[in-house]
Please model this.
Amino acid sequence: DVKVTQSSRYLVKRTGEKVFLECVQDMDHENMFWYRQDPGLGLRLIYFSYDVKMKEKGDIPEGYSVSREKKERFSLILESASTNQTSMYLCASSLPRFPQPQHFGDGTRLSIL
Amino acid sequence: ILNVEQSPQSLHVQEGDSTNFTCSFPSSNFYALHWYRWETAKSPEALFVMTLNGDEKKKGRISATLNTKEGYSYLYIKGSQPEDSATYLCASPDSNYQLIWGAGTKLIIKP
Model:
């Protein structure tokens, strides 16, 4: 069965900390995505990547960066965590051909205190 | 900016009853429409990806229709069961082929 694994289900960090959220997929997918989900809103795209070493900004990239050194791993980095980054973070992957469904991890519920 | 809207926001349905809800999207520059089911404490799961006007897709008791000319899709659940309780999300790609998501319809099945 296909699998997208996020490193933590729950995470609590302090304001100003550098936070790493890891995502690994075992489907050999080229495309990977990071979203955040907040109450009453649809998923919002933070960053995405279509290939190793490649990254593109989504709709809300401010305060975040990403790394994709290997095809299977896509990391989201909060450079200096702030309370407004408290959210549910979801990683997804997909095949490159359009349109393809996205496969999601279980999410990381991140709280910034 | 593409806007995807879902209604209702939440829905309580008696076990055994059938139900449906709506996803609205701009009818111009349409590329595709995705439906996902997101159960609590699990990952969102793709149900359907639809591209053609008039398309209908079915997966067990769940089906979906698509009207690209008027910009809406319906998701139907026949004979609701407790395991259907979830948030149902729809999404449509923008001109950069990135998915724009609705806020979801939370479905609660009452036994």
In short: Chain A has a mean pLDDT of 95.
